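Bumping with the actual sequence this time:
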Amino acid sequence: MSLTELIEGVESHEKTLQVFNADPDTVDTLRAQFGDRNLTVRGEETPSGEPSAFVVLSKDGEFVTGVSVGEVLPEDREADPGFEADSYRPILDHLDETLFTSYDTEQMISASREIEDRAWRLGKGELHAGFQKLSILEPQMDVYQRLAEKDGLDVHAYAAPDQDVPTHDTDMTIHVERADEIRDSWFVVYDGAGVDVNKCALLAEEREPRAFYGFWTYDPDTVDWLVDYLQTSYGLVEQ
């Protein structure tokens, strides 16, 4: 299975978000919030009207999770990952492995920062990031060299050659690959230093110019598969 096939597998599973006992404005807010996701949002009422304002996520008709509306409403806050000069707005949510559509570069950077931030804070394990091309990696070198300065964190970057490999003075490993999926894919995968609850990943492909389709996941099996796939498919070809 390739990276593209993994995305297609997620895309093929329909998810529904049922919003129970909430006012129409709240349902509309959630529908707008997830308008760029492969997700159907429906307003529902229980016979008793209780409990108030909760949502149920189902996949292919099977229950996945239930949370209060407050846990999935957009948050009006900023977060600073601690190694990036500019703050970013959190974008990842509880809807694990739900396809997103047409994310632009700014949204992808925000999602990536949240995973990079987790790796930074824990300071150990492996972080694998795909930048498509070396020219896209180069402006991110300051961030990734600071990540690589963490003694226990093993940092790997993947990119297709369109210029010289950026210079660096850390143990960061740059994999220069000519595979189409490396050129077309944006990914950030953190193995959580072997702790399942810390594992997370973002995977997307560029289907239209600078418009990305993909998903994020906190599922440890999916993260383990991605780490193993990258390790076995791409050797150390730093140049």
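The tokens above came from a reply further down the thread. Residues 100-233 form a domain with the Endonuclease; Chain A fold (CATH 3.30.870.10).
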